Amino acid sequence: MYLQQVLKRKITLKHIARELGVSISTVSKALKNSNEISRDTKEKVQAFAKLYNYKPNNIAISLKNKQTKNIGVIIPNIVHHFFTTVFRGIENYAGTRGYNVVVCVSDESFDKEVINMEMLANGSVDGFIMSLSAETQARNDFAHLKEVTEQGIPLVLFDRITDNIDCDKVIINDKQIAFKAVSTLIADNRKHVALITTDTYFNVSRFRGEGYKEALQVAGILYDENLILTLPYDEIDENVIRYFFQNTKIDAVLCVNEIFAVLAMGIAQELGHRVPEDIAFIGFTDGLLSKYVRPSLTTIAQHGEKMGEMAAQMLIEKIENEPIDERETYCTKVIEATIIERASTGN
Amino acid sequence: MYLQQVLKRKITLKHIARELGVSISTVSKALKNSNEISRDTKEKVQAFAKLYNYKPNNIAISLKNKQTKNIGVIIPNIVHHFFTTVFRGIENYAGTRGYNVVVCVSDESFDKEVINMEMLANGSVDGFIMSLSAETQARNDFAHLKEVTEQGIPLVLFDRITDNIDCDKVIINDKQIAFKAVSTLIADNRKHVALITTDTYFNVSRFRGEGYKEALQVAGILYDENLILTLPYDEIDENVIRYFFQNTKIDAVLCVNEIFAVLAMGIAQELGHRVPEDIAFIGFTDGLLSKYVRPSLTTIAQHGEKMGEMAAQMLIEKIENEPIDERETYCTKVIEATIIERASTGN
DNA sequence: TAATGCGTTCTCAACGTTTCAAATCACACT
DNA sequence: AGTGTGATTTGAAACGTTGAGAACGCATTA
After folding, report:
1. Closest-CA distance of chain B to residue A226, Å
2. What number of C-beta contacts closer than 8 Å exist between A and B?
3. Residue A3 pLDDT
4. What gap in Å lies between CA A292 and CA B230, rounded to an integer?
5. pTM higher than 0.85 for the full model?
6. Straight-line distance from the first to the last Cα atom of chain A, in angstroms, rounded to the nearest whole number
7. Chain D nucleotides with an atom closer than 7 Å to a protein C-beta
């Protein structure tokens, strides 16, 4: 038998109204259970709507209400454990508040960030959550953010933030936790604590570096530039790391991310150092790597999911509680990072 | 000086029209450079629009055109390397075609999958790309997918697919590549190749298992149930793995994901086995783990990014080339997985 | 009888855009 | 002056929804 494929095209208020011989607004109100409408009519309309599986058109509602129930998220990279967990937090919280999440990836590029932002700023989303691309931070150009906030569109920055824009922010206590990590290493009787970091235009790297220095200072250990290794963000040359370990006396390392940590730990082991007996390692980001590498890596958990939730909550707050029109007030929330002790430290 | 914060509220065609004393449609046409409009007027309008940074309202355009330029992506989990790479492929390709991506995470839950889908199906997106949640696969209930396709909304399934729904699909050649991997192991003179897998309601696991079996068969090796270890998808008990290695003669292992592989490899090493001399390991998913673990893990790259691109391309194709109204035709694309040889195999 | 009130329904405008069809205008040609 | 032509501009409807206000029928009240 030849089965005609029936396309159940979306049904609208108008269809229902026509079919039932009532006006559109009657249908609209009946479906909202308005008590302007008689019981009879309501039942009739609701039954019909259910039968034909009526669902209101979100776009039309958005146009009418001037709000989309969409949140725009712009992050530098999605294939990255930290961002991914933050995203999960955002998506999760947003869902409970009835918001959808539109994600754009800037790919660490300034231009893409700007394009994505403009694309979404024209009515597609009610607000933004973002973390700055590397290039944006290097350039120090935030005109696109300024433009958005000036239009009254709420913005929440997280992790990679800037002081140049007035908006809500969520960060972790990078400096403090680095301080704590290094202090712990020193307390374990490590004398030569190295730092493996990235170029400092990431302000997070800078803060972590400050924590590192301060811990040395407090412990009365002289800061030694030779104990600092700065690596590019991508394209890492293992030989640089090898050279570093071969020519420097090191008994502990703090790394600003888990890749650096795992890589460095592997190389140190190859060179015959025992972990943690000879060298201890602490990384940032509690991802799969830290957990499954052998020995497992002591790491600083940034609680990305919590960060994402926090950011989403702050954003929705701003979206829904319209401008109290006085001078807008912004705040910066600090998520407390924690150290997860595993096998790469201790003594 | 007290600086009044000026909210540059979005400007519309109506504002421009009123300001310039022309009609709305004139403004609309002038901005589109229509040649119905005089050069004078066009210049005037365009200059004004530029000055006040006019940007058309996407929502209004969506309502008018009945298309949102949004793609809905529903995946089981975002904190997962494979899905993350697929997403990157989607986002990337979609961007080049002027589409935005709305992501929902089903969290392996059937209900969430349904809710997300319904939420987006009411006009928020022009089509869906999705990978089924574990629960959906276990239940074998696809009513929500059916409903969407019956409404004429294009759908592309990837990786975790089902035969019960007619739509475009993108998968990898799971069976073949597993066959190839195991054959390679056998060619390296491995006699006792184990398989570490998940419950088979993931059809991908099933296919991989079939490839495994077939390779044994072709090599004339008897299938031995004792060489199969089935682990739950989460909450893995390391002792189960330890027991497995202690009580079974094994000289090679194929794992259906990289976590299983890394975990198993670590435990095997602890038990005194050398990798790859005594036992070789091959995993699925070319993520950070495989790359950075020591010894680095030979793995099957699923080319998620390519898969995502493919899926996005197929979807946009369907979205833009309206129903040719004959019987709709669907296809299934197969992305070729490849084996990335690293240090955990060889002889 | 006329006024008031209530319950119910309808009309209309609005959100911001596009586009078809119609109107207006300037100008040239009979 | 009348007609035709082409260039330019405008009006109105439409997309699907909401909500304020008008209108209707009917019953109660003054």
Report:
1. 26
2. 154
3. 38
4. 19
5. yes
6. 77
7. 7-12, 14-21
